[in-house]
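task queued by scheduler; priority normal; single chain, no ligands, no partner chains; default sampling; output format set to structure tokens
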Amino acid sequence: MYRALLGNPALKVSPADVSRAFDHYREMLRVRYSSSLFRMETAAQVQQGLTFLNVGPAQQPGVIAMKLSGAVSATNPYRQVLVVFNATGQSVTLNDPALTGLNLSLHPVLAGSTDPVVKGSRASGGSVTVPALTTAVFVSQ
């Protein structure tokens, strides 16, 4: 499907496409700089603070989920950050006991995004739902 789109000479990039790509890039930079958990400096910090979910024989193909954990500080307002990359062509719901009790919500930058699709990402209890072909970031304080 994607190869056919990329090979279609009739598809042209519009000014609106360029603007949306610029907005997305700027939003992702704001998300990255919102927490020092995205900038761990040592292997020990990564080993202690990074966990991958959606692994093992029951994993959902095309979905990468990573949970970053750390102490709240002047450079990190969140105890937990969950990043979900949904590379599939359909919305996915990720259920994991590690998410229970985290009280996750969509990152404030993405909740105010210019992209209506990412704003459809939801967290509830021990699960998160992310639309097709979307990267969503959830936070817990």
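post-processing summary
- The chain has a mean pLDDT of 94.
- The beta strands are 50-53, 63-69, 80-86, 92-95, 105-106, 122-124, 127-130, 134-140.
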